[in-house]
Amino acid sequence: MRGLPGREDVSAVPRPDPRWQVVRLVPLTGPALLSAMVPVNLALGALPVVFVVAAAHLLAEVPAAVAAGAGSPAFDRLLTAFAVAAAAFLLREILSPLQESLGELAARRVDGLMYDRLMATALRPRGLAALEDQRVLEALRLASRELEYGVQSPGQACAGALALLVRVTELCCCLVAVGAVFSWWAALGLGGVVLLFRHGQRGGLRRYARARVSLADEERRIDYLRRLVIEPGAGKEIRVFGLIRWLSGMLEDAYRGWLRPLWAARRRAYVWPFVWFTAAGTAVTVAVFWTVGTTAADRLTMTGFLIVMQAALGALRLGEHYAEVDLQTEVGLRAYDAAERFAARIDAYPGGREDAYPGGRESESAAGPPVREVPDPVHAIRFDRVRFGYPGGRGRVFDGLDLTIPAGRCTAIVGMNGAGKSTLVKLLCRLYDPDGGTIRVDGTDIASFPVTAWRRKLSVVFQDFARYEVSAAENIGFGAVDALDDRAGIEAAARTAGVPAVLGPAPGGLDVPLARHLSGGADLSGGQWQRIALARTLFALRHGSPVIVLDEPTASLDVRAETRFFDEFAELTQGATTLLISHRFATVRRADLIVVLAGGRCVEQGGHDELMALDGRYAHMFRLQAHRFAEYTGDPT
Ligand SMILES: Nc1ncnc2c1ncn2[C@@H]1O[C@H](COP(=O)(O)OP(=O)(O)OP(=O)(O)O)[C@@H](O)[C@H]1O
Hints:
This protein is of the alpha/beta class. The chain has 22 helices and ten strands. The protein folds into three domains: 18-348, ABC transporter type 1, transmembrane domain (ABC transporter transmembrane region fold, Up-down Bundle); 374-457 and 546-637, 3-Layer(aba) Sandwich (Rossmann fold), CATH 3.40.50.300; 467-545, no CATH class. Strands 6-7-8-3-9-10 form a six-stranded mixed beta sheet. A four-stranded antiparallel beta sheet has the order 2-1-4-5, covered by helices on one side. β1 (380-389) and β2 (396-406) form a beta hairpin. The two termini are 48 Å apart. The structure holds adenosine-5'-triphosphate (ATP). Residues 381-624 form the ABC transporter domain.
């Protein structure tokens, strides 16, 4: 991809074995939790074997104790064995739920920390380029989904790795019991068989997990279709256009397309290895016990026999799939890996490592040493031979754009769809940096300002502005978040933008939450939201943001609201540098300067009368719209 050397290499960076990655994550659970979990898990591993040994002694003592009667040494030994077996059993019953709760806590803690880290990484880049890269978004989607729902997350992998201690301890204790009571060769053979079974299990699971990863595209498609069905966005169209049958067919096909290869992979991964390992394991078990049994059987007592039988069976059972460990440790690191990939991709972008927040590092910009103070524009903001194309885009949006936005006046930008009007706003906000050329404020390159300080000078209504699910007052106050407690300022901005009329006489006034699902919440129309966004801009202006950028600010307002807004707006924004982007020529004609963008350049500029006299693109577009408007209203302007 252009301008981003080395980015393709990110996925090729060698990664440590996932098992070591899990081990490296374990300390994130915290020392207190870890020091509780380790002994609990070790105890849970040892207790079944303590129970087996005590139960074997108990059974072996029964004939002698019954014969000697109560109070005899045999009876005392019987009682002791019973007490130990009962204690081991009870302790296990108590520790099991405790272990589950501690595991859950550990998983949540690790996932919570990783989620915070993921969010911090997502907020780190000062621009948008990285967050619009599909591969970056895909890694973010995968990581946040697993971390959020915590199904097969890194936290679950950590808890699984700690739970593995239980199984390993139990296996070791079983083998020690067999070795000490019967034969160390038998213990060794048994251990080998169990490890062979486990190897078969884990290998199958690994292949299955790989097959799942390779079906990520299919999984994504199912996710998309499911969301389409359950989220309200497309609900209207699905019903009106009768898309329900088509959608369920698509969903069914997508499921089949995902399940078929997954089932095939599961068969390949499990069936034959299972048959092979079972046959091999059984043969080895029989051979070891037969050989050792024929040579050492005469050494076994009744107690020894019971211990060896139960310990051997217990050990063999440990060759199975561990429900609390295997899937978690095998798949749980997918989200961890995705989070790491996401961070690596973000870092690989220019500016990706920079801190977008005050006090953070600023780039060693090509424009020279950083300038800390950002002055208000006094003369003009100038785009000087600016070249820009989106990373991965289909070519240049601007190819040598020269444009002067006079300070303290209103400049309107017009142009066809896709001419680059919104891109110009993004460059001005430094959400992207130009590939060539400069943007200067009174002669100083904006790249030399701390990015946050520069942005504080801007008050922007984006075409797709954010609709925060908080109160109307907070939605407006976000224009200058440090001044959220300036209630009078918020109310004044709200009045100018006509917000009270929108909210009506509802109790709560500006404190009404702007989300239908919140209790007492209001649901606003597109035009009503636009008034909130305009009020946000006016509030920012009041708190020291002298450059106002309005990208299609009144597209959803009715004609009366638009006229009223501009009458008041013009008065309130006197002296501010305003950049207005609009397809509405009734709005545009009131600007001091009108600029026509086409082909990545500025092709006409001047006042309304001047451009009409020029009879070029602007005059043509203006007449076309005025004519259409007159057709509907009978008003020729
Ligand atoms: N994130 C992006 N990645 C790649 N290309 C993009 C991106 N955003 C916009 N473009 C492309 O850049 C060009 C200019 O888009 P822009 O949104 O700036 O146009 P516009 O003049 O604001 O259009 P409209 O009047 O429709 O709002 C278009 O060709 C568009 O497809």
